[in-house]
Amino acid sequence: MPPGIAQRMLRGKVQIVTDRGVIVAKKWPRKRPEPPTEKAAIARAEFAAVAKATKLVSSLDYEAARLNSVGIPYVPRDIIMLSMIGRFVRWTYEGDPEMTMPDVQLVLGQLGLEPGSIILCTNEGYVLLPPPEAEAWLKFNPDLNAATWFTGSPAGIDELTGDVLAGPGTGSQAATLSTTGVTPGSYTAANLTVNAAGRITAASNSGITSGMNELTGDVLAGPGTGSQAATLSTTGVTPGSYTAANLTVNAAGRITAASDSGITSGMNELTGDVLAGPGTGSQAATLSNTGVTPGSYTAPTLTISATGRITDATPGTGLVTGGQAHPGIRTGAFYPPLGTTALVTPACPQNRIYARLFYFPTPVTLQSINLNILSITGTPDMELGLYTNANGVPGTLLNDFGSIHLTSTGNKSFTSLGLALPAGFLFAVTAFSAQLTCQGTNTPEPLLNALCGIDTATATNPSEPVYGAWTFSAGALPSNFPTPVFGVGPAPRIVLGF
After folding, report:
1. Alpha-carbon torsion 343, 344, 345, 350, what sign?
2. CA distance 467 to 482
3. All domains of the chain, ordered by start, with CATH?
4. Do 181 and 202 form a contact (C-beta atoms < 8 A)?
5. Distances (CA, A) of 406 to 32, 181, 374, 412
6. Tens digits of per-residue pLDDT, 185-228?
7. What is the pTM of this model?
8. What spatial distance separates the first Cα and last Cα of the chain, rounded to whole Å?
9. How many helices (H) and strands (E) does the chain have?
10. What is the mean pLDDT of residues 101-112?
11. Which phi and psi (to 5°) does residue 38 adopt?
């Protein structure tokens, strides 16, 4: 290029000097740089922050970066910076164990950048399978040990024949059932032929010539086909209402004869204990008088007939005021058993039911049953209940109030019972699962002996209240009291509250 042209092109851009007759550029003149764009300013600030951060890494991170930089064109600072921005990727190949790339995208891009391409791993290494030029499908090639494009028809089913028809063709095909030769339509009482596949291959009407088309005898219907109205045959009985009828019924349950019998032989008057009539139709019945004066009787003497009617009644004198066998039961008071004497501390063994006799002159409502426990060993159980009176000894179980688990001494009770009891005698009972001591009463008990008797005529001492042998079972008092035994020792003092 001629020197004049070169000088004009570089004028204002460099200083031109001549060195031994040769025009050369001495230096670039200083020029005020253009201010950076917003993105460039952000990039510079981020780069400055990363550069500053690379100087603050720990000694352990720096040593790791140094080891990764061995054999590759990167210094440890480059490794640290690329790691911070997430673009450092290192891997090795069998042929070059120290090959390191900052970005896997660079390696993949070397295989090809055509959209739709597929990267395959073959016997020869990684190759790029470009997209096909026409519609194709992938098929595995065992010689290449990789998949290749195939433009022919796939080896799948492209046609169905037989019972199900579809195709020929590829892709989605509409399937239909083949015809069986059966004429479409409705069949009455049809004769059908079904093959192994469950399809009807033949069908025809069978008709109903062999069916029932007429009924005779007790039920009449037909002759005819289809729905027929059925009626009962006549029996010769005149239709109508019959009073006190005489009827004849056959084996089929039908009335074959009927007539009025009248009521001349019927009952039209009652006498004796029940009075009614004379007359016909509905009559009011009443009980005949027994001669007993109507009214209230106190402790009466009664005469009762075989039919359960009171035929005589006279007032009694045994329970008039001041002459009762018991002064009466007070609400809120506590009552010990009959025959109670001096208080003692009996040692009560296990597996024994003690019974104490009580008497009520009138019906009462029992509220509590109590027993004062004085000493225990361990934590035994105590049972409380009521039995009927059977001629001075306990009879059948009235109430099993259940068991109390004894963890301390003192009064133990069942309260708020609200149990209605009739007037008369009954027995309250208690039993224990282990021997303990409780508040009791000592012999002699002459009143109890007079009321309940004793079990031997040669006894020299009055006996204690009755008891029975029983293997303790919580909440399961026996339905009948065991064989009564009359001992000669103290017994628990059971107390009832009303």
Report:
1. negative
2. 8
3. 57-102 (no CATH), 118-150 (no CATH), 334-497 (2.60.120)
4. yes
5. 108, 92, 11, 8
6. 888 878 889 888 888 889 888 766 566 788 888 888 878 877 88
7. 0.40
8. 141
9. 6, 37
10. 55
11. -60, -45
